[in-house]
Amino acid sequence: MLVIALLGGESTGKSTLATDLHSALLDQGIAAARVPEHLRTWCAERGRTPTRTEQAQLAKHQGGHIEAAMESEPPVQGVIADTTPL
User: Fold this and answer.
1) What whole-number percentage of the chain has pLDDT above 90?
2) What are the backbone angles phi and psi of residue 31, rounded to the nearest 5°?
3) Of these four, 7, 16, 26, 66, which has the most CB atoms within 10 Å of its CB?
4) What is the DSSP track for 46-69?
5) What was the pLDDT predicted at 9?
6) Could you tell me where the beta strands, DSSP code E, fall in 2-86?
């Protein structure tokens, strides 16, 4: 399975690149999933950035979303992840 994880600072274009890569794979007939950045959603829902004690759980969730995409039904050949738990 191909997993592409995008790394970089905020507002550097990771989400746009993830969307574009995902679309390009689909256009080539490659079944792929895109995993958005969990932190972005979390911050938007709460209106704040996480505290130091919340960060490990957020990273765990991001990793879980990537793993779930890898095991999705119908199966995919690749996953584009808009960041990683690193």
Assistant:
1) 84
2) -70, 120
3) 66
4) HTSPPPGGGHHHHHHHHHHHHHHH
5) 83
6) 2-5, 32-35, 78-81
